[in-house]
Amino acid sequence: DRIEATCSPCRSCERRVRQPRPTLARPDPKRSFPGVHRSMRIAYTLTMSAVETEAAIGRWHDAVNSKNLTAALATVTNPIVINGPKGAGPITDEGFVEWITRSGITLRPRSYHPITDRVIVVEQDAQWPADAEPTRLATLFRATGDQVSAALRFPALREALEFAYLYTELAATE
Q1: Residue 171 — very low, low, confident or very high, per pLDDT cuts 50/70/90?
Q2: H-assigned helices in 42-146
Q3: Distance (Å, rounded) from C-alpha 77 to C-alpha 144?
Q4: Cβ neighbours of residue 102 under 8 Å, at least 6 residues apart?
Q5: Residues 62-108: pLDDT tens digits?
Q6: What pairs with residue 40 in β-bridges?
Q7: Dihedral angle computed from the Cα positions of residues 96, 98, 101 and 106, in that order, rounded to the nearest 10 degrees
Q8: Among residues 143, 126, 158, 154, which one has the least CA distance to residue 57?
Q9: φ, ψ for residue 144, nearest 5 deg
Q10: CA–centroid distance for 90 within its chain
């Protein structure tokens, strides 16, 4: 089965971005999507691997939001690469669990933006215990097998998508 992307509103940039919907038809690469970013005029075809990546990201969110530390250890690789306001780099799975406990964050996915079979950008509403209202941000997730191997946080969806496309171009030249 194939999943073809359709357009839906993107709150971050007030333009339209691609959202998956099931279909058995082949995407038409010449099809025009008025109002869509030029860089977003891509017909996504999700394979089973991309579905597994999205499932791994869903388990990651469930573990973080429920503060289930045992499940959190099972959802990430050791080490996991992270990026956030306090720096970037690999941390151990135990360091990831400490972050869940220390931050008290709750992350609610708003939209999924598949980049490759292993990389998906997720727009989220993040809320810390001291915040009255959630903050909109985006995270680039990379999965290895059924675990999240990278979670790179960005202040806006557009920045995360730009980095994701750059990342895929870099990876393609290896």
Answers
A1: confident
A2: 48-66, 69-75, 93-103
A3: 8
A4: none
A5: 999 999 999 999 999 999 999 988 889 999 999 999 999 999 999 99
A6: none
A7: -20
A8: 143
A9: -125, 110
A10: 18
